[in-house]
Design brief:
- The complex is a heterotrimer of chains A (357), B (240) and C (288).
- With 357 residues, chain A is mainly α.
- Helices cover 74% and strands 1% of the residues of chain A.
- In chain A, helix 1 packs antiparallel against helix 6, helix 6 crosses helix 7 and helix 6 runs antiparallel to helix 9.
- The relative contact order of chain A is 0.15.
- Chain B has 240 residues and is of the alpha/beta class.
- Chain B has a domain of 133 residues: 3-Layer(aba) Sandwich (Rossmann fold), CATH 3.40.50.300.
- Chain B is globular and about 50 Å long.
- The mean pLDDT of chain B is 89.
- Chain C has a single domain, classed as ABC transporter involved in vitamin B12 uptake, BtuC, CATH 1.10.3470.
- The chains are: A mainly alpha (357), B alpha/beta (240), C mainly alpha (288).
- Chains A and C meet through helix 5, helix 10, helix 12 and helix 13 of A and helix 4, helix 9 and helix 11 of C.
Chain lengths: 357, 240, 288
């Protein structure tokens, strides 16, 4: 089977599994579980935004949570002011995108190198955290929406069907929306990456100098990639605000930023499925370790339930031992096993023969 | 006497105290093939970097087809029609040979046309069999040809080759010289090389660099006999 | 008049504390080109080391100036030998691995010490400047910073160790050919950078208290100071601290502490944009 056919088969598989998951889950799972799964879907979209920007674009962004948070806050604030969700949803995508475009212009047209990009994006998200965190008093408001500072913004009204204020989305509806959004994002990105634009940004990631010497302007391509990533993260943020009906400044925090990077590393840069797997896997693991811990448990249990501790070890282990991430490494392992089997078959040696021989 | 394709006027480059290139006045005619030789550190690669926009000159001008490109961005200069094969192969190591050439070809062709140009180019540099392999895993000589294929695919007017024969086997050197002569039928070239055999295979006029400045410019037979040139090479290569 | 003196002291204090928290990182980044995102946690561990020592009866001065640097220095060497040395040349991977280390250390200290802030009361009391009172400890911190920076300058400039360090930084292969052992130099350098960070964390512990996530507040500021400062370790750290510290204090004085922080961070971003090589990439280039 050639590469193209394998590619299409893979896409079909994802589509099938995704559609099945979408349709069957609410029928068979408890509402609790559906709620948990919904946030996994939303975070997976966030992971995909960094997969695009970093995995394919080669832009080390340590502050992807900035756009995620901006999306969530923009939705919340706009929703309180408008009452109907169409414009807030659009704003929640447009504002982070605009911010990403501005920041991207500042960084890429300033020829700032990789490492410093990471530091600057980290600093930006910290600025947002610090600023928003201190807006607790009633004097901090945009229109009728109070920013709430470290208290956050509670009671965020959910999305409604465009035009119909009364038809709000419910829990099950959120699940359908988030899962569908994830599938659309996945296939949309696959399309983008197979296009001329997608292939060029990968070239720029591989060797920016060479791409430049061929006549491509890396600054413009990186800016576009970064902006799309920001828009996606903002969209995820809007969904997140809907899921919990609450948003607080921790969304801009270092921990959130670190998580997104960990998902992409664990899952595998340079793929789209990888970060989705990494995201859902790490989230599930954190929940499994942290949940159901009765108070007064022994020291060992408390250690295992300590998310930063476990995540830290996972990150170090993956960087040192599995630098390409789970999905590519498993893919390599699969290839190796298949080839080993093919070799055995080709030499016609069966285990018993080998023993007796 | 037609206007030169490429011209530099008093071109200079210094890096915090080191004068890498000093007052170089250089002219290349349309379709000409020029060899650039000189000992290591003579400023040849720095000169190339200024021609392609990778470095901004400290002083002086670079003119390409009459336009001053001294302060233009590298990608703008590439679009004007200057291609370069760099000293250390600058290719997309993590991508296949086909994808490498596609990236170059698709800058000026689109869709199906780009794909057929890629196939032609693979033929031309003799890499059709290796089209699907990752460039990072190819032998050094093959990587050089990939880069040649990339440069040719953007159809530039002027091609700069920085040590195209470096690290190649005898056979590969011959093949490369043939390719260079073939390219010269439609394009201008400046070739930097140390391998004197290779230079004899392709050269007419040679410019000799030393300590950042042009030492002498002459036909290849005269250069090889020139005592000044022998001196700067410590009497080794020029006599070979 | 008194107000000016007070403000001046605050500005110098801001510069001094910024320099203190950054110099360990500057040494590691400047010498080894390693981005250590666990830097904030080295500061935090220094604070805890001092607190544990004092709670066992050790004098506060010994705890801060001896115990903390030694403990964190040893931790630094262990980290270098077990993690960092596998990642030389891979800058991004080093950033990621040290971020993992940072999470791990935060988790570990939370598990061991719990989440609450532990404090030491600042010794040295307060003194009067005209109508205002200010803490004597402020002057101590400034003094420590001066002594430390002066000491580093002296070592780099006049001792064999400093020469070896500068040589290895410039050209590791040459240094090896001359009999110096680069891996050992790296381990020692990382250890010293960590020790200095531990010292800074301990010295600043009485000011802000210590809790597991205090590293977060330190890491961004120290990073932008080091990167804003540029390649020269001392000149870079001092000039960047001077710039950022001054802006931070003036902004704080004029508005609120939060805005002071934001002003500092924003200035850093603008600086990096204008001077991608840092201050000493353009000015004071021949400095140490």
């Amino acid at each position: 089977m050639n590469a193209r056919a394998r590619n299409l088969l893979g896409l079909a598989l994802v589509g099938l599994v995704g559609a099945g998951f979408l349709i069957l889950t609410p029928r068979f799972a408890e509402l609790d579980t559906v709620l948990d799964l919904t946030v996994y879907m939303i975070m997976a979209i966030l992971a995909l935004s960094l997969a695009l920007v970093w995995g394919y674009g080669g832009i080390l962004c340590f502050g992807q949570s900035a756009f995620f948070g901006l999306g969530a806050y923009t939705y919340a604030i706009a929703m309180f002011n408008f009452g109907e969700s169409t414009i807030p949803l659009l704003l929640a995508i447009a504002l982070p995108a605009a911010f990403a475009a501005l920041l991207g212009y500042f960084m890429f047209y300033g020829r700032i190198s990789d490492v410093y990009l990471g530091v600057i994006t980290l600093t930006v998200t910290l600025i947002l955290f610090n600023s928003v965190n201190s807006t607790a008093g009633p004097e901090f408001h945009i229109g009728v929406a109070r920013l709430g500072g470290f208290n956050g913004i509670p009671g965020i009204p959910p999305l409604n069907i465009p035009g119909n204020k009364a038809a709000v989305i419910d829990l099950e509806g959120m699940f359908y929306l988030s899962t569908a959004a994830l599938l659309v994002t996945y296939f949309g990105l696959r399309l983008l990456l197979a296009s001329r634009f997608g292939r060029i940004i990968v070239g720029i990631r591989e060797n920016e100098r060479r791409a430049e010497l061929l006549g491509y302007d890396p600054r413009a391509y990186k800016l576009a990639t970064f902006t799309i990533g920001g828009a996606l993260a903002g969209f995820a943020g809007c969904l997140f605000a809907n899921w919990g009906n609450f948003v607080s400044p921790t969304i801009f925090g270092l921990a959130q930023s670190a998580q997104i990077i960990i998902w992409v590393i664990v899952g595998g840069r340079g793929t789209l499925i990888g970060p989705i797997v990494g995201c859902i896997g790490v989230q599930w693991l954190s929940a499994a370790l942290g949940a159901n811990q009765p108070s007064g448990s022994d020291w060992w249990t408390r250690v295992l339930a300590n998310a930063p501790l476990i995540l830290g070890i996972i990150l170090i282990a993956f960087v040192l031992l599995v630098p390409r991430g789970l999905v590519p490494t498993l893919g390599d392992l699969g290839h190796w096993l298949l080839r080993a089997r093919a070799r055995r078959v080709a030499t016609g040696l069966r285990p018993k023969q080998a023993e007796e021989g | 006497m037609a206007a030169p394709l490429l011209e530099t006027r008093d071109l200079s480059m210094h890096f915090g105290g080191v004068q890498a290139v000093r007052n170089v006045n250089f002219a290349l005619a349309e379709g000409e093939l020029r060899c650039l030789i000189g000992p290591n550190g003579a400023g040849k690669s720095t000169f190339f970097k200024m021609l392609t926009g990778q470095l901004v000159p400290s002083r002086g001008q670079v003119l390409f087809r009459g336009t001053d490109i001294s302060h233009a961005h590298a990608h703008q200069i590439a679009r004007l029609g200057i291609g370069i094969k760099t000293q250390v192969p600058n290719v997309f190591d993590g991508l296949s040979v086909r994808e490498n050439i596609w990236l170059a070809a698709s800058r000026i062709h689109s869709g199906e046309r780009a794909n057929s140009v890629v196939d032609e180019m693979l033929e031309r540099v003799g890499l059709t069999g290796a089209a699907g392999r990752l460039v990072g895993q190819l032998a050094h000589g093959q990587r050089q040809w990939v880069e040649l294929g990339i440069v040719l695919s953007t159809d530039p007017r002027l091609i700069l080759l920085d040590e195209p024969a470096a690290g190649m086997t005898h056979e590969e050197v011959h093949k490369t010289a043939e390719l260079v002569r073939e390219i010269n039928r439609s394009k201008a070239l400046i070739v930097v090389e140390h391998d004197m055999q290779f230079i004899r295979m392709i050269a007419n006029k040679v410019t000799v660099f030393n300590q950042g400045a042009v030492l002498v410019e002459d036909a290849v037979e005269n250069i090889l006999r020139n005592p000044l040139v022998r001196d700067i090479y410590l009497g080794k290569q020029a006599a070979a | 008049m008194d107000l000016i003196v007070l403000l001046a002291i605050q500005v110098i204090y801001a510069i001094a504390s910024l320099a203190l928290i950054s110099v360990g990182l500057a040494i590691i980044f400047g010498m080894m080109r390693v981005i250590n995102l666990a830097h904030g946690e080295f500061l935090m561990l220094g604070g805890y080391a001092a607190i544990v020592a004092t709670s066992h009866g050790v004098s506060i001065w010994i705890a801060m100036l001896v115990v903390a640097p030694v403990v964190v220095g040893i931790i630094g060497v262990i980290v270098e030998r077990t993690i960092i040395r596998f990642l030389y040349g891979r800058m991004i991977d080093t950033m990621l691995a040290t971020w993992g280390l940072s999470l791990f250390l935060v988790g570990l200290t939370t598990a061991v010490f719990g989440n609450t802030t532990v404090g030491i009361s600042a010794p040295l009391g307060s003194f009067q400047i005209g109508a205002y009172r200010t803490s004597g400890y402020t002057l101590f911190v400034i003094a420590v910073a001066l002594v430390l920076l002066g000491g580093i300058f002296a070592v780099l400039r006049w001792t064999r160790l400093g020469l070896i360090a500068r040589g290895t930084m410039q050209n590791a292969n040459m240094a090896a050919a001359l009999g110096v052992n680069p891996p050992r130099v790296y381990a020692v350098t990382f250890g010293i950078g960590a020790a200095l960070s531990g010292l800074a964390g301990a010295v600043l512990a009485p000011v802000s208290g210590v809790f597991p996530t205090i590293g977060v507040a330190y890491v961004a500021k120290s990073f932008i100071t080091v990167i804003g400062g540029g390649a020269a370790i001392l000149t870079g750290t001092v000039s960047a601290s001077a710039l950022f510290g001054t802006i931070n204090q003036i902004a704080t004085f004029a508005t609120t502490p939060v805005f002071g922080e934001v002003a500092l961070l924003a200035t850093a971003i603008v600086l990096i944009r204008l001077l991608p090589q840092g201050i000493t990439g353009r000015f004071f280039r021949r400095g140490l």
